[in-house]
């Protein structure tokens, strides 16, 4: 029997929660080991690039635009703070 939209959505949410928890577990372990978030940040950046590159071109471009937009927002805050 086919799953309902609600069942599929619940499974999606459960998988998203499990993914977040595994990432948090990794980050916590990396922090405990290195006393810094640098290792986790670099590792996650590398994995994020792998994931983005597996997406269709349009989605890759959309995500790059989101990151560039956020970088511009952060840079404005830095410029304001250092002015």
What would your notes on this structure say?
With 83 residues, the chain is mainly alpha-helical. The protein has three helices and no strands. The longest helix is centred in the first third of the chain and has 30 residues.
Report a brief summary of the structure.
The protein is an all-alpha fold. The chain has helices spanning 5-34, 38-53, 57-82.
Task: Give the tags.
mainly alpha; single chain; 3 helices; 83 residues
Fold topology:
Elements: H1 5-34, H2 38-53, H3 57-82
Helix pairs in contact: 1-2
Proportion in helices: over 70%
* Terminus-to-terminus distance: 63 Å
Secondary structure category: mainly alpha
Mean of all residue-level pLDDT scores: 96
For the largest beta-sheet, the strand count, sense and barrel status come to: none
Report the uncertain regions: none
The DSSP helix count reads 3
Overall outline: extended
In angstroms, what is the radius of gyration? 18 Å
Give the percentage of residues in beta strands. Answer: under 5%
């Amino acid at each position: 029997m086919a799953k309902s939209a609600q069942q599929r959505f619940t499974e999606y949410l459960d998988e998203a929660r499990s993914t977040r928890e595994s990432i948090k577990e990794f980050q916590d372990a990396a922090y405990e080991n290195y006393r810094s978030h640098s290792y986790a940040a670099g590792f996650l950046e590398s994995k994020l690039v792998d994931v983005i590159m597996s997406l269709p071109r349009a989605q890759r471009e959309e995500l790059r635009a989101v990151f560039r937009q956020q970088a511009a927002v952060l840079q404005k805050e830095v410029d304001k703070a250092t002015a």
